[in-house]
Design a protein that fits this description.
By secondary structure, this protein is an all-alpha fold. About 55% of the residues lie in helices and about 0% in strands. The radius of gyration is 16 Å and the shape is elongated.
């Protein structure tokens, strides 16, 4: 059994698709804002994953970046439970 299977493609995260379901939870006037927010949430998810798994050189994130990410996650949570 090989630990590293080079023939197998890496798994892609389906987070963006899942976050886009949030667009359907709001009225049509809010959909563009939530669509943009879902894109930002996907970015935060990917970058956070990079940091946690050591794939990003900037392991020591500034408070400004962490607070920006926190705000995006809080805004996403507010869509689900206003």
């Amino acid at each position: 059994m090989r630990v590293c299977n080079t023939q197998q493609r890496p798994r892609a995260s389906g987070v963006r698709v899942l976050l886009l379901f949030l667009v359907g939870l709001v009225d049509s006037a809010e959909q563009p804002r939530v669509h943009r927010l879902a894109g930002l949430g996907d970015h935060v998810y990917r970058r956070t994953s990079d940091v946690l798994h050591g794939r990003l050189n900037a392991l020591d994130l500034t408070d400004v970046v962490v607070e920006e990410w926190r705000t995006i996650v809080t805004d996403l949570e507010a869509v689900v439970s206003p």
